Every structure is written in C-alpha cells, then in structure tokens.
## 1
Amino acid sequence: MKHFLVTYDRAAGKLLTFREFEDFERNDALQESFRLERTHRDNPDVEVVLLGAESRRALEKTHSRYFKAPDELAKAI
Amino acid sequence: MATFEGVLREHLSLSVTSRLKTVGTILDKLRREKTRLSTMQDIAGVRYVEEMTLSQQDLVVAKIVKAFPSARVVDRRIHSSYGYRAVHLVVDVDGCPVEVQVRTHLQNSWAQIAEAIADRVGRGLRYGDIPTGSEQFAEGLAEWSDQIAAWEVSANELDSLEAALAGGPPSSEDTPEAAEAYEAMRGYSLQERDRLERAQRDFTFAMLALVLIVTTAQGQET
C-alpha cells in the first residue's frame, strides 16, 4: 500500500500538489500533511488530504473529484 | 487501521482506498454537527467503489459484516442524505470507529459531482444548508439522485431477469405457453436494456448541463 498526499483548491477545482509515499514512509507523509495544513490554514478553499491506496489509479476511481474537472466527471457517468 | 485495510484488500478482495481526516475537516464537522470527537465515526475512512448492481452491493456489505460482525450498517440508499446514496458501515478498529463507504459507480459519480459543485457554490449544499442563489443546483442534484436511484432498482431487476433468461429457452418437452412466455420475457428484457441505456445517457447529459451552468456562472463571477 502507498500513501498519497493531496492538496486541492476547491474553488478553482484544481489539484495543487500530489505526492506519493511508500508504506514505510507513513510517518513522513503524516508529518508533511500536518505541515501543509498549517501552511494553508488561513485558506479554507485549500483541502489537504492524506489518502491510502494501492495505486494512483485506484484513487482516481474512488476520489475522482481531485483528478477530473466537473464536466469530465459528468461525462464519465 | 493498516491491518483493517489489509483484511478488506487481501481477505475480502476489495480494492479499497482510505482517507484520514485532517485537523481542519475534523474541526469543521465538530462545529457543523455540534458533535463530540469521541462520537465522530469517520476520522478514518475507507471507500470501495465498483460497477455493480444493488444486489452485488448488498453482497459486498454482507461480506464485510461477516468479517466484522460488530459492524453497524447505515443504508443511505434508503435514507439518503440530501441526495447522497451509498451504504456505510461503522466498524470498531482498535477502539476507534472507522467508516467504510460502499458505493456503486453511479452513486460515487453523483457524490463526486455533488461535491465538486458544492466546492464552487458553498459546502453547505452537501448538508442541506443551501447557499443563496444555489437552489437550482440543490434541486437538480436531488432530482438526479432520485433518477439514478430508480435506474439502479430497474437495472437490478433486469440483471436478475437476464440471469434467469441466460439458461436458454424452454426445452422441446415444455408447453408452447412456456416458450411463448420465454420469448415475451426476452423481448421485454431487450426493450428494458435499451430504455436503461437511454435513461443513463439522459442523466449523464443532465448532470453535465448542471456542472456547466455552475462552472459558467463561476467564470462570470471571477
């Protein structure tokens, strides 16, 4: 399993950063997520999220909103 | 948590993804729902999404309950939350409640689009706190959630019918009435499949129109 640290601009609908960590780097991923949360704490539009998955592809299926524009989400129904 | 995910992935063959709530989203939820941290069920969450029928979704839920008998099932297909439909399970993992979301592809598509729209017009849209001027989006999402729900019920019934028909026509030893009934059912299933395909195109188009209205309106504001 891998860890994926995502920062996403809700208002712009834009993926800002996407970083992948190996399973053994979980603590690093957590520390980095806390750091990013502090960085963006004054901007409610920026979402910081730590996800776990086997691959980016698996995330694109379950959390497609981070990776696709709204019209692409609708077309993929 | 890692062991829990491992059981879902390796023993139950469910390709799940997980999410850890951030401090910000926990605080938002505590404020919004006036709840306590100790009762919050989705600090850690797991999601499973698959192209499946409602019956297949039930089987996935049953599989999880069998592996974790203390799991509490919340069927949001029956009691939808502002249009949101899925089956949730709350499983106690080492003393912490973990929420497992089981969604069909369509339920997830609706949820992702609703969230993307809420990101633009106001997050309250997801909880019934509709931002001023966004009533049409809330109504559109609710309407299409109902359409998708009806579609999924019909698709589930059709899937059962097609499975029954897959056994082939009655044998020559059966009555002519049986053969006639088989042909009638086969004709109905073909018509119903065609209707469902058209209905799916309709709600794809309607959801696309809805997001285009939102993004166009947003573009005009900026």
## 2
Amino acid sequence: MPRFILRFRGNGPAQEADVNRIRALPEARVIDASSPRMMLVEAPEEHLRNAISDMPGWVMSPEQTIQLPDPRQKVLHPPEDTES
Amino acid sequence: MARTTKRAVQQFVVLPTRGLKARAPNSSPAVANVLLGLHQMLAAPAAAPPPELRALAKKVRILDSIHEDGAKLVEMFPEDASALRAANPGLRIVPVVYYYTAVAPRHAVAAAVAKAKAAKAIKIQVLSSANQSPIAGATVVAFTDFANKAGAQGVTDANGQVSLALGTAKKIERLYIYAECGFWNGLRQNITLKTGAKFQLRKIDLGFTDELKFLYANVALADGTGVTVGVVDTGIANHPDLTIAGGQNTVVGEDPSDFGDNGEGHGTHVGGIIAGHGTPPAGMRGMAPGANLRSYRVFGKGAKGASNFAIAKGVDAAVQDQCDLINMSLGGGAPDEATKSAIADARAAGSLAIVAAGNDGRQPVSFPASDPLSIAVSALGRKGTYPADAVEVGDEMAPFAASDPKDFIAAFSNVGPEIAFTGPGLGIISTFPGGYAVLDGTSMACPAVTGVAARLLAAQKQILAMPRDSARSDAIAQFLLQAAKSLGLGVTFEGRGLLS
C-alpha cells in the first residue's frame, strides 16, 4: 500500500475534524500523526485525493526518499577488454 | 588573458513567497508594489515605469501577468534575476521549467558485468603513510576509462588489501582511494596497476590549512553567539569539539530522543563545519563556535536515504525550537509538496533554510535547494588547500575566478540560476564519529555558508529581535545576500558569491 504525506497549509494547527476524517477512511492506516500539521498515511491514493478535495488548506504528496549528496566517484561499467 | 562570458536571456516566473497573489499577511506591501509595478509596465508599456522600478524596467521584459498583484512571466538575464532576488527576498523568482516524458534507460551492461565477475583480479594494498599500517574499509575505485566510468572497485579488508576485477596488469586513468576517516583520500593518475602494488594515504593533520581555514581564519570561540542553527541531517555524534544543545529524531519508528549520528558521519561533519569549537592542531574549529547547535536526525540508522516526511517533520521541529538558520545538506528527489511546504512554513516563521545544490556534476540544482524559498549553495574549490595527491585534484574545473584563478567551482557541484551563494566544499577537514574526516561536496559548502551566516547574523541584533514572521526571514536573507562578494565566477555558478 502506498504511503502519503498530508500537510495542512492553512493558519494554525490542523482541524481535529479533518484528522478524524482521514483516520476514518476505508483501508487507511495513519502511521504517524505526531506533528500538529502533518500526517503520514498508508491508503489508496484515490481515497485520500477524494477526501482532501473538500478539505481546504490540505496538500498531499507521496512519501519518497531523498539521498545524501555523494560526490565520490563510482564505476558504472566493467572495462571492455577484461581478460578472463 | 581576457575572459568572455556567454550571456543568455532566460524566462522566469516572479511571484510572492506564498500563493500566486501578494496578499497580507503572507506578503509585504513591498512585494505587492513590485508586482503591481510590473503589471503596469505590461499594461502600459509606453508609460513611464514607477520610479522604484525604473532601473529594473531596463533589464526585464514582462511577457504575461496572472493578476495585478499576481505572478508575472518575465525575461531577463540570470545576473539580473539574482540582483532582483537580493533586493526583494520576499519574491520568489523561479526559472521556467519544461517537462518531458521520462524514457526508461536501456540496460546494456549485464553481459559485461558477468564477464567481469569471471575476470582475473589485481590485488593491491592501502597503507598509512605515517606508520605503514594497513587501512581497512577503504573504497578503491579504478577507472580504465574515466569519461565512460569504466573500471572496477572494491573495499579493502583488515590487511588493507582489495581485489579489483581488471584482468592482469592494467593501465589506469584514475585510481581513487577513499578512507572511511582519519586520512586524506588519494588520487593517482595514469598508472599501470599490478598485483602487489601499495598505495599510501596521508593522515589528517588538524593544523593543515584546508579551504575552510584558508578562507575563514581567526574564528573566535564566541562567534555566532545568540544564533540558533538546526542541522537536518544524519544526526550529530558526541564529539569533544561539539556541543549539541538539543534536537529530535523524526524517523518513523525510531526513538525521537536519539538524534545522534546514524553511523554515516555526514551530520557530524556538517555540525563541525558550523560550530566546531576545538583549537587546531588539537581540535577542529567551525565557522560559528558560539552558535546554539541543534540536531534533527531524518536518516534512519545506517540509512543513506531519508523520507520526505521525516525531512518535513525535522524542519518543522527546527522551526518549533526557534532555529534562525536550518542547514539541509541533502537533496535529489523530485519536488514534493511536503518539503516545499515545510520550507515555506519555516520562512513564514522567521527561519531560513540553507540547502546544498547537489553533487551531480554541473547538473541543474537539485530539490529542495531548487525551491525558490531555499538558499541554494554551490561548492567552491581552491588549489593548494589539499595535498597534490588527494582526490580533490580530480575536481578542479573551469570556470576559475576572475579575482583569483586558484578559486573554482568544484566539478561535482550542481549549478543554475537558483544558486544564492558559493562556499568552501573541497577537501574540508571536520569532526567525524571517533575522530576527523576530509569530505567534499555541496554538503560541506552548505554548512560553511550556514556557519558564516550565523557569525554575521550574531551582530545583527535588530534582525534577531524581529517578530518571527516572513519579514524576519526576508530581512535575514536580504542581509546575507547583500553581504556576499562576487569572485567573478558567474551567477549561475556562485550566485551572489562568497560570504565574508
């Protein structure tokens, strides 16, 4: 199941009614709601999009991974004339 | 010799920091006035521009406007965009981007990899130059064809030995040796590699004048006092040269109070560059030893990737803890709303995010550095601030500075119109779990800028005393952007230049 971040961009903390509505969505599992303006939720994307479409101030984005920038050189191919 | 620079007009979108229209409380009257003035210039091109926009009117062509006080599509030179950003930090100035379909790459190397696995190996050894003891855990990368990244690599064992699947004796264009810590990383060029070859790495001497010390000598222990800096990274380890005021681990499923280093050492190195308070040659000193240093660990134990959820939560926590500057030496994912919103909310709460541009080798600035509300940092190198046989030699690349041709933007650094500053990022000695390490990258340039920014900001009591809102973060950004000095490298490489 994909994971999504729901973030409240309105003024003040997120409305409890909005949070409860997300919690009550079918097949939804709230993984982290410890932040006052943000939740990490595992749910079908369509369910979440439908829910936040009439919840003003909320934005949604898929969870993704950001890497440490690494400048070290790496080999991408073996040498063409390697002897066996 | 005279230098010529090719200039090209680019398209930008100019808009408020939040939303598409300049409305209180998210935008200041100054931002609204600029956007209204630009709208007047589009609606009545023959009329005289408003007095405050006369200089700008000569440099910019307005192509479209969403609303009187809304976003504008404009054409101008990147240098003029940089100047406009410095004069109006409450504006977002975003390069126009065109998206294309993503064609999957073809995988054509599988057969060659299988062949290489069966190849004869060349076994070499890596030793310390100080006492000839073997160096374990060093990554050895041998390129037979550097341009095409062809070759072999491996990690040394407890005897300092590594086998490279290269066949028998082989001409090597470049041989990189990366130690885990304690040594300068080595580079040998155009050698013939044979089994039994030994290579030595130099131990780090904390008295050595690296690029950080060269550019910023005489840092006092009190520098940075009164400024709080948050490091959103792999966590910061306990170290004799570091004092960590607090922080949070925002990785889902981990202990929130465990904001020490996750084992990578990256955040500890970054923390030292900002606020190391040792004294060479016994210790390492950063740019703002007196700053209040806080650690927000967003990378899980042993992880090289961080969730955008953890990053956004880490930025939120840094804002909650009233960090004035937030250092983000990370990047590379697709732009996402969560991270963008966290940076925007930080800006609205008086905090400024300073972000590494990325190390993809002259590629566009990566996200989140590319976000218009981020302060993006490229990596500056300087010849002579690393040993002649160190890997840093391999990152010397034009353009070289007009002010001093020993200065250059490191080959790995990403560049683009979003760059706000450049900072020392090549051959930087700093703290590491259990000792010290030399690292390169925009990851190092970013905290150098953050640390110098903290040092400069500490003297700006009026700005620090402002209410924590967007006017405060705009004032911090404006102060810093105007404090930079150009090295003559071009704005897409150095932004406004080097903080000094």
